[in-house]
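Write out the bound-state structure for zinc ion.
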Amino acid sequence: MDSPREAAPMEPCRICGGGLRPAFGGIVLDTVPVQYAQCTECDSLLLPSPTWLEEAYSRHIVPDPDFGALKRTLFIHRCLRRLRSKAIGLLPKRSRTLDVGTGRGLLLRLLLDNGHDAWGYDPYPQSIFAEDRIQTSLPDGPFSAITAIEVIEHTLDPVDFLKSLRTRLAPGGFLALSTELYDSAVHGPDWVYLAPQHGQHITLFSRRGLYRAAHAAGLEWIRSLNWDGKPFLHLLVPVEARVSRFRLWRLQRLHRAGERRHARDGWT
Ligand SMILES: [Zn+2]
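---
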């Protein structure tokens, strides 16, 4: 097996095409040495040439290290409720939605129970909540809302991925994707979001990286909603869409007040 130094990346940044330079080393899947690389153009952090992905996706880790999955799903559901509120009006009350990378299908089930014509896409479905609503190939649009929760950091072709979702948006529709943003001044080899135990987080966006990827896909990044003080759920719309700054300001206020209330309550 190559040493991390020998595997030093020379391929271009998969987000913006910029050059890469070594950032720091690491170990994924307990045994595989890797070299993280930072883009000199967009500052994103990548794992180039991830030859271990087949093993990474075939492993079944018990217990699942993603302990936050349920809490995260409930957060996303609260955000969607705010987007649906009368004051914001970005999500129609009864809309056709798509959840990409459905996983166990919890968000999909919640949206179905809310009366939405909700669908899921997952090439490796493991849903236990909405088996009959999941497709293994990306369904055609249009969708009023497309969610991709903890998906884009797994992709090898993030711009193509965003483009394929953009073409499936209905007029006035939006894309909500969650991923933690990389900041080289803050994050190092101990960043929890690297999640080396499963080796699947290979494309970690900086702010600039996400902006560039959205732009290259014909999307505008209009706002991020914070979770635990960090920008986490990123809202993107087609560049030709017009979402008023006032509506986004109201959304931010509604979101902050709602999350404060939720935190005070102290209940998941
Ligand atoms: Zn880049």
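---
Residues 88 and 246 are 9 Å apart (CA to CA).
Residues 13, 15-16, 18, 39, 41-42, 44, 209 surround zinc ion (CB under 6 Å).
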